[in-house]
Write a structure and sequence with these properties.
two-stranded antiparallel sheet; alpha/beta; 3 domains; 13 strands; single chain; 16 helices; TIM Barrel
Length: 426
């Protein structure tokens, strides 16, 4: 029930209709059960019609009273989603995202919030959280809303142009035996030369290729060049093998690992002379399809290596079953673990002094990578590490284009006379 401006009670809906026609209903019911004389039929019928008309009149008055009382209050619009430009200019992306989340989830006054919104939130920001709570998304997990600078846009364009022109160069860094220092195999390291002659390391251009969906194509080109280098080493009578890094983005791309089987079938002479290096993260997150693809490559004679390890935890038996024949571990992590009394870096891993022997029993050879100082070599030798790689032994060196099969690749006009500026190596 509501009241109009004259403070008279106003009924709405079914209650108003029921009260308005109640007399007419009783009159019609009484005429059916109470015997009446012929002279009273017409007056009763006239009274019934009058009651019905009166009920209609009452309903009309109720409707007019409702209109005079005004429409029902509408929901107060939510606060704008965009903060003021002055406030946004003073805050970083993280604060800006939090303000957007608060504006989208809560009205300016809690007293004006609809009860339904409190019971059933319309927006859930974090799993298990509700609107208006203090839990907001981690800013680092959200997409960046900042605009790329002119320098970043130019770099993306230059990297894309260089990749489409196939200006990829191959560099090799040797992996030597300890303590003899003899070269056992090489790791293929890619470089990308821009149109002005600048030479970029993978850390500078690979993220751009991964974001643009070109990681698989890039890894395939590097593998083809590494196979050409392996043929050259075989022709010279060298027993050294070549390792090729695969990016995590390319590995998970549907059909990529399966396509490598075709490359091996076309060059059976280099089986066992090229090693595919997969990151530690990829080995720990293999699904059914990736395991099947790796099993197919393993059956063809392709050895694998674990690369880019972030910790020293591993299961030698499980890795051997997957076809891993080499394991690269950071030299600084192993040296730090050796300094501990129990020989452990962190967690329940094996004693670092047992790494080499535990891996050797499973047919896996341990490689210490990033050996950049001479004083690291004696410590690694005492730990029984059989192989090592780093600037302490040799820096990556470029491969002649004719050896890697690059002699017919397109080159930018005037590139022969352009200066070479190496930004980063290793």
């Amino acid at each position: 029930m509501v009241t109009n401006k004259k403070m008279n009670p106003v009924l709405k809906g079914r209650k108003a209709a029921l009260l308005a026609f109640t007399p007419a209903i009783f009159m019609a019911s009484a005429s059916a059960y109470v015997p009446m004389e012929a002279g009273l039929v017409m007056p009763v019928f006239a009274a019934l019609i009058t009651m019905v008309v009166g009920g209609l009149f009452i309903l009309r008055q109720q409707a007019e009273a409702g209109r005079l009382n005004g429409p029902e209050p509408e929901a107060i619009p939510a606060a704008p989603l965009a903060p003021s430009p002055a406030k946004a200019a003073k805050q970083g992306p993280a604060c800006l995202l939090r303000d957007l989340a608060r504006a989208a989830g809560a009205p300016e006054s809690a007293a004006l919030a609809a009860p339904a919104l409190r019971g059933k939130p319309a927006l859930t920001l974090v799993g298990g959280s509700v609107v208006g709570s203090d839990r907001f998304p981690e800013p680092s997990l959200l997409p960046s809303i900042r605009r790329l600078s002119a320098d970043e846009t130019s770099r993306i364009r230059l990297v894309t142009q260089a990749f489409e022109a196939d200006r990829i160069e191959m560099h090799l860094q040797p992996i030597v035996s300890l303590p003899q220092g003899r070269i056992r195999f090489y790791e293929a390291l890619a470089r990308l030369r821009l149109a002005d002659g600048t030479l970029l390391a993978p850390v500078e251009f690979l993220p751009i290729l991964e974001c643009s969906g070109r990681a698989a194509d890039f890894d395939r080109r590097i593998l083809i060049r590494a196979m050409a280098v392996a043929r050259h080493l075989m022709a010279r009578g060298s027993e050294a093998i070549v390792g090729v890094n695969l990016s995590a983005h390319a590995i998970v791309e549907p059909g990529f690992l399966w396509s490598l089987a075709g490359l091996l079938d076309a060059s059976p002479e280099i089986l066992g002379r090229v090693v595919l290096e997969l990151p530690q993260h990829s080995w720990r997150h293999l699904d059914t399809d990736l395991r099947a693809a790796l099993a197919t490559l393993r059956e063809r004679g392709m050895p694998f290596s674990l690369d880019r390890a972030a910790d020293l935890r591993f299961d030698p038996h499980a890795l051997a079953d997957l076809g891993v024949r080499f394991m690269k571990l950071p030299a600084d992590l192993m040296i730090r673990a050796a300094e501990q009394q129990d020989g452990r870096y962190a967690g329940p891993e094996l004693d670092v002094r047992d790494f080499a022997s535990a891996l050797r029993r499973q047919g896996i050879r341990l490689i210490a990578e990033r050996v950049d100082r001479d004083d690291m070599v004696p410590v690694l030798t005492e730990l029984g590490v059989p192989l090592a790689q780093g600037f302490a032994f040799a820096a990556p060196r470029p491969v002649k284009p004719e050896i890697a099969g690059e002699q017919d690749l397109p080159r930018a006009f005037g590139l022969e006379d352009a200066p070479t500026r190496l930004r980063r190596a290793g």
